[in-house]
């Protein structure tokens, strides 16, 4: 079985076509690394090392590629040179490989570089490329040299084979694409229903199960839709589970908006994204029920995110209730009880 080219990779081939032998060589270099990793089953083995982690197989990598294509759009490829597109493709490919050593510190440059050395033939000849790819991919997560979350600040323009590489811009696109790559494709409903994920990981899988994210470059927005099904027996235990899930959606929606504002601060390509909208749809036993929750819209605001983050659940709930008081979680629970 071979790798299925993503929309990003197809546009990459189209972008390279007719630009000379050097561009053809770049794509072949990229594809050789990708195919070596895929044929060796590398991405699938991450699950074996971290069985309760949400999906980080080739499906996730392909999803990040697709998200990158959607937030860039066909026209934005021309903003970059061929070397930059090549570097971005490799950064997407390698950004999560450190999970093979365990989730904690997966973004460490040394972990990414070690996997790179395994799958890049004659890696000794690609020292500058390895440094650029591992440094750029590492910035998608973790902490900066200063100890905060502003990892993009540490990056500078670079060059590869005498071609400009705007590493901060590329890493911004990777980081935002990775944030958007969430949804049902990252989990298994059977394992959720049977409680076969670890307790600390379960909330991430339940979140993935209900989440749909759609970036629309033309309208300059990211739409989040949560589809939540209420069980027939909505007892105290189920009510508590829903409270925890709603709190987590508030956190993740706010986090996504923070990432939108943060990454666009460092990226010309991402400046077009001006809002994040959030919609909740509820069903009971898969039959729609009407909970009067208006669409929530997050817009640009300052200061720049990355310096101070809201993490307390009560504060996050307040952010939502200030926009619509019906987002009070107890009120949502009572409304569902009344309807059902």
Any overview of this molecule?
The structure is a single chain. The chain has 340 residues and is an alpha+beta fold. It folds into 2 domains: 7-179, no CATH class; 185-339, no CATH class. Helix content is 51%, strand content 11%. The strands form 2 sheets. Strands 3, 4, 5, 6 and 7 form a 5-stranded mixed beta sheet that branches. It has a two-stranded antiparallel ribbon with strand order 1-2. β3 (211-216) and β4 form a beta hairpin.
Blueprint of the fold:
Layout lengths: L6 H10 L4 H19 L2 H8 L8 H19 L5 H13 L14 H11 L7 H12 L19 E3 L2 E3 L1 H14 L8 H5 L5 H12 E6 L4 E10 L5 H30 L9 E10 L2 E3 L6 E4 L13 H11 L5 H11 L1
Helix pairs in contact: 1-4, 1-5, 2-5, 4-8, 5-7, 5-8, 6-7, 8-11, 11-12
Largest sheet: 5 strands, mixed
Task: Identify low-pLDDT runs.
Answer: none
What is the 3D form?
globular
Can you give the mean pLDDT?
91
Write down the secondary-structure element order. HHHHHHHEEHHHEEHEEEHH
Number of strands: 7
Number of helices: 13
The tally of domains stands at 2
What integer value in Å does the Rg equal? 21 Å
Task: Please summarize what this structure is.
This protein is of the alpha+beta class.
Keywords summarizing the entry:
340 residues; alpha+beta; 2 domains; five-stranded mixed sheet; 13 helices; 11% strand; globular
């Amino acid at each position: 079985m071979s790798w299925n080219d993503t929309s990003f990779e197809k546009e990459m081939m189209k972008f390279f076509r007719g630009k000379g032998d050097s561009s053809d060589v770049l794509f072949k270099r990229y594809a050789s690394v990708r195919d070596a990793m895929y044929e060796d089953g590398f991405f699938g083995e991450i699950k074996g090392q971290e069985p309760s982690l949400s999906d980080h197989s080739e499906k996730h990598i392909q999803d990040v590629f697709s998200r990158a294509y959607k937030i860039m759009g066909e026209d934005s490829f021309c903003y970059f040179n061929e070397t930059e597109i090549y570097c971005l493709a490799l950064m997407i490919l390698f950004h999560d490989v450190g999970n093979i050593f365990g989730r904690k510190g997966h973004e460490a440059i040394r972990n990414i570089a070690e996997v790179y050395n395994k799958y890049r033939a004659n890696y000794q000849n690609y020292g500058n490329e390895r440094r650029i790819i591992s440094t750029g991919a590492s910035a998608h997560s973790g902490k900066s040299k200063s100890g905060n979350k502003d990892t993009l600040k540490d990056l500078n323009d670079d060059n590869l084979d005498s071609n400009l590489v705007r590493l901060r811009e590329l890493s911004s696109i990777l980081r935002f694409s990775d944030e958007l790559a969430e949804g049902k494709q990252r989990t298994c409903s059977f394992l959720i229903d049977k409680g076969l994920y670890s307790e600390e990981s379960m909330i991430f899988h339940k979140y993935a199960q209900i989440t749909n994210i759609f970036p629309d470059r033309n309208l300059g927005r990211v739409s989040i839709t949560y589809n939540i099904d209420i069980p027939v027996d909505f007892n105290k235990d189920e009510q508590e589970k829903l409270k925890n899930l709603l709190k987590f959606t508030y956190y993740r929606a706010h986090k996504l908006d923070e990432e939108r504002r943060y990454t666009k601060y460092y990226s010309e390509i991402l400046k077009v994204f001006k809002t994040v909208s959030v919609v909740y749809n509820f069903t009971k036993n898969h039959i729609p029920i009407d909970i009067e929750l208006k669409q929530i819209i997050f817009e640009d605001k300052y200061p720049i995110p990355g310096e101070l983050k809201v993490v307390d659940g009560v504060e996050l709930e307040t952010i939502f209730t200030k926009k619509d008081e019906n987002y009070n979680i107890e009120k949502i629970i009572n409304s569902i009880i009344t309807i059902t």
